[in-house]
């Protein structure tokens, strides 16, 4: 059974400052062009099954998208592959922006 947890924007923001985690943006290229959460790796959801094994190993992995729906699919996929401590950003970048947290240009995030 695949399981993952939801993480709220405020909890993610605080966790990013204190714990190592792998942040994966599963939005499409045109969405990512508007900005990403700092430190995120961009892998469109459609490519995740092809690129999953090449992801850096991490104790905590957080997926996000625009509203949290596609990233929930990504989190379920990662969990089904045996990853532990998998999270989905509840509300996606919409919730992140509403909370007032910053975005950076795609080039300032991590590339994969």
From TrEMBL:
Pfam families: Rhodanese. PROSITE patterns: RHODANESE_3. Residues 17-105 form the Rhodanese domain. InterPro entries: GlpE_sulfurtransferase, Rhodanese-like_dom, Rhodanese-like_dom_sf. This is Rhodanese domain protein. The lineage of its organism: Bacteria, Pseudomonadati, Pseudomonadota, Betaproteobacteria, Nitrosomonadales.
